[in-house]
Please model this.
Amino acid sequence: MTGLLARARRIFGGDMVGPIVALIAVIVVFGTASPRFLSAATFGSVAFQLPELGLLTLAMLLPILTGGLNLAVTFTANIAGLVAAWVLQANGGVDAGPLAFMLGVALALGAGALSGTVMGLVIAYTRAHPILVSLSMMIFLRGVGEFATRGGDTSGFPAFVRPLGHGSVLGLPVPLLVFILCVGLWHLLLSRTKLGFNTYMVGSNIEAAHYSGVNTRKVLVLVYTLSGLMCAVAGIIMMARFNSVRVGHGEAYLLITVLACFLGGVNPFGGFGRAIPVFVALIVLQLLSSGLNLLGANQHLATAVWGMLLVLVMVLRWFAGQFAIFVARKE
Model:
């Protein structure tokens, strides 16, 4: 057994073992408990539900790798969605043309990036704790959004927007394709670029990174800007999926994004983690939710199970660390 686990760690990487084991466990348990679990309907449901949570998780991933956190991911996404929706409303609503949509998307991406840049600048230059900075931004964005919409929804978009949230290409949902593309971009960013390398250095030891010649302030600003940009992508997908935008959309996703990162092997203190294991962890969480629904459990129980899973992940990671020490001593 020890040899098998050690071989798995060498083949897939240490951070992939946990998500893969969890994936196999979920498939076996729920596949045995419900004959409907291993069906096209279940995996189709997961494919449509996964992207919005997945994009927000990618937005959370980069700040965590620097040893920080972005608590404003959902409200940044909603504000970006509102910006796109306002542009469409100002240009005819359901009669708005493609140029208005493109302008709305560009401004939405700009709004998300601006939110992240502001957080990055404050964190980088004042050394304020990322939790406090992002919490402040979350409260600010929520207040601005509720003031502008009076707590209501903004809806009424052109028909050509709908395929972005509900369309499919070769049987794969368009939102899922967008998410997979973003996972690939994040993987390349972290594994093939100077910014990715510097992100890990900052997360491992920001002072050592600074004395090594890394412009840590620039890295932090870019990381939070990219985080805000990914939030905006999520906001645009959510707008198309729900055919409306509201400040509170996806609010429950916040803590789940953190759970997905930790389940995907990301170090909560920064410096270690990859996009691919997080992608697998997200699939595990969605399959877990679908399995509980098939067994008749409501969403509240699924949320409780996710919370307990976070505690279990922390315990298992401690055991994994002890196992790694044991294997190293054996070798």
Summary: The CA atoms of residues 6 and 327 lie 8 Å apart. The chain has a mean pLDDT of 87.
